[in-house]
Design goal:
Layout: E1 7-11, H1 15-26, E2 30-34, E3 48-50, H2 57-66, E4 69-72, H3 79-86, E5 90-91, H4 95-99, H5 104-113, E6 121-124, H6 127-131, E7 141-145, E8 155-158, H7 161-170, E9 176-180, E10 184-194, E11 200-202, E12 206-211, E13 214-219, H8 226-242, E14 247-256, E15 261-265
Parallel strand pairs: 1-2, 1-4, 2-3, 4-5
Antiparallel strand pairs: 6-9, 7-8, 7-9, 10-11, 10-12, 10-14, 12-13, 14-15
The chain binds adenosine-5'-diphosphate and magnesium ion.
Adenosine-5'-diphosphate binds at residues 119, 142, 149-152, 179, 181-182, 184, 187, 210, 213, 252, 264-265.
C-alpha cells in the first residue's frame, strides 16, 4: 500500500491527468507530471512538472526514481515507455495492457478473444485487403486509422468499396480498420477500477451522446434497461480481467436498434 505523503507519477498532462492530480493531492499525495507541453492542464497544477518527451530516457529514469508508483492518463503513451519504467518502479496499467488498447485492430481482436461482441471489422493494410473484403462488411462502413485516432479524427464514412479505396488514400494508406456502421439506439460506457488483488468496482453506467464523433454529453445514471447495464458492467469486467488491468479504465459500448450490446473501444 502506498500511503498519502508519497509521490505519484503521471504520464500525460491532459484533462484526465488534471482530475487525477487534484484527487491525489486532496488525499495528500504529491504528483509529478511528465508531459512535453509546458502549459499542459495537469502540469501547471502538479507539485512538479517534468517537461520532456515520453521517449526521453533520462527524464523517465528521474521520474521512476522519484515516484512510488507511476500511471498514465491516456492510451497513446508508447508501451515501450511503460516497459522502461516497469524495470524501475511500480507501474499501472502495465505496458502489455496498454499495448492491447493502442491499435484498433489489436484491441478489437483482443475483445473478441474474451468472447465479447465487436462490430464486424476487417483490418486494412493495403489495397489488396480492400479488394478481398467480400461480404465480411455491409455498407455503409467506417474506415478508421488503427492508431492515434480520437474524437472521431481519422475516420471516414464509406458507402461502397470505391469509397474505401478513396478513404484509404486520404488517410495516407496507414494501417486502418474498416468497421460496419451500426444503427445506434444509444451509446453507454462503463468506468471501473481494478485493484492489484483483482477486485473490481464500477461507477454507475453512463449514457453518452456523440456529435460528429466527439463526445457531446454524458448523463449518469444511464436510462438503458437495468439488465443491459448489468451486461455492460460484466463485459467491461471481463475485459479488465483479460488485460490484468490495474487502475481505472473505461469501455465504450454501442447498443444497436436490435438491442445488441457491442463493445466499441477501451
Ligand atoms: N461502427 C460504428 N457504427 C456506428 N457509429 C460509430 C461506429 N464507429 C464509431 N461511431 C461513432 O463515432 C464515435 C467515435 O468513434 P470511436 O471509434 O469511439 O473513436 P474515438 O477514438 O474517436 O472515440 C462513436 O462514439 C460513435 O458515436
Ligand atoms: Mg470513442
Amino acid at each position: 500500500m502506498i500511503l498519502p505523503g508519497a509521490t505519484l507519477g503521471m504520464l500525460g498532462g491532459g484533462q484526465l491527468g488534471r482530475m487525477f492530480t487534484t484527487a491525489a493531492q486532496t488525499m495528500g499525495y504529491k504528483v509529478i507530471v511528465l508531459d512535453p507541453d509546458k502549459n499542459s492542464p495537469a502540469g501547471i497544477i502538479a507539485d512538479e512538472h517534468i517537461c520532456a518527451a515520453y521517449t526521453d530516457d533520462s527524464a523517465l529514469a528521474e521520474l521512476a526514481q522519484r515516484c512510488a508508483a507511476i500511471t498514465t492518463e491516456f492510451e497513446n503513451i508508447p508501451a515501450s515507455t511503460l516497459a522502461f519504467l516497469e524495470q524501475r518502479t511500480v507501474v499501472h496499467p502495465s505496458s502489455t495492457a496498454l499495448a492491447s488498447t493502442q491499435n484498433r485492430n489489436v484491441e478489437k481482436s483482443f475483445i473478441r478473444a474474451q468472447g465479447i461482441a465487436t462490430v464486424p471489422f476487417v483490418s486494412i493494410n493495403s489495397t489488396d485487403d480492400i479488394a478481398s473484403i467480400g461480404d465480411q462488411i455491409n455498407f455503409p462502413a467506417i474506415l478508421k486509422v488503427a492508431t492515434f485516432g480520437y474524437d472521431g479524427k481519422g475516420q471516414i464514412v464509406c458507402e461502397d468499396l470505391q469509397a474505401v479505396h478513396k478513404a484509404f488514400e486520404a488517410l495516407g494508406q496507414k494501417e486502418c480498420v474498416l468497421e460496419q456502421r451500426i444503427d445506434l439506439e444509444r451509446e453507454i460506457s462503463v468506468v471501473l477500477a481494478r485493484s492489484q488483488d483483482g477486485q473490481i468496482s464500477a461507477f454507475p453506467v453512463a449514457e453518452n451522446v456523440h456529435i460528429n464523433g466527439i463526445l457531446h454529453s454524458t448523463t449518469v445514471p444511464s436510462i438503458a434497461a437495468e439488465s443491459l447495464q448489468q451486461t455492460a458492467i460484466e463485459m467491461a469486467s471481463t475485459i479488465a480481467e483479460g488485460l490484468r488491468y490495474v487502475g481505472t479504465m473505461a469501455v465504450e459500448f454501442f447498443v444497436s436498434k436490435q438491442g445488441d450490446i457491442i463493445a466499441n473501444e477501451i
